[in-house]
Design a protein that fits this description.
rod-shaped, 4 strands, single chain, Arc Repressor Mutant, subunit A
Length: 181
């Protein structure tokens, strides 16, 4: 990374300009660009010093002020899309890009994944039968099992992804057929 010019050079350039020498001749004499001479002179008049401003560092995230709202919104509706979040932020008067939202989520450790389970598993009768099935599952002869291909089953109406903390799995529920009792 480039370093700023020394303060000594900056002060000599600014004093030459203050002595009335033309900017272009000062730039040629000291081997710096005309724009640098102009900027250093302006900074000297504005702040009293031609010293370089700090370089590098981290910029704050554009959405840092909306952090609480965004995290609350994701806890309410974890399967909201980036497009949806950008639209909701625009409704709140915050205009940001998709990248800004994605960058905020990545910084917060929120990824986009979901394990989709049948919502019927929460019903007491289904839970009872599942527990019974798990107890007797080891007693089955695998050679007597039949594979049923459900390739053409239509499951594209449910969102298959959602957002949660990185390293954790978001569990979503969706009906998988067989009506409610």
């Amino acid at each position: 990374m480039a370093r700023p010019y020394s303060l000594d050079l900056r002060e000599r350039v600014v004093s030459a300009v203050l002595d009335g020498q033309p900017v272009r001749s000062v730039a040629g004499r000291f081997g710096v660009s005309v724009s640098s001479v102009v900027k250093w002179s302006q900074r000297q008049r504005r702040t009293g010093s031609a010293a370089a401003l700090p370089m590098g560092g981290r910029r704050g995230y554009v959405l840092a002020g909306e952090r609480a709202w965004l995290l609350g919104r994701l806890s309410e509706k974890p399967d909201v899309t980036l497009r949806g979040l950008v639209g909701e932020l625009a409704d709140r008067g915050v205009r940001v890009s998709y990248y800004a939202v994605w960058n905020f989520l990545r910084h917060e450790g929120i990824s986009f994944k979901k394990s989709l389970l049948a919502s019927e598993q929460e019903r007491p009768d289904v839970a009872r039968r599942r527990a019974r099935w798990k107890r007797h599952q080891g007693k089955l002869d695998p050679s007597r099992l039949v594979f049923i291909d459900e390739t053409w089953a239509k499951t594209n109406m449910t969102r298959t992804h959602g957002r949660c903390a990185r390293g954790r799995r978001l569990v979503g529920r969706a009906p998988h057929g067989g009506g409610e009792p």
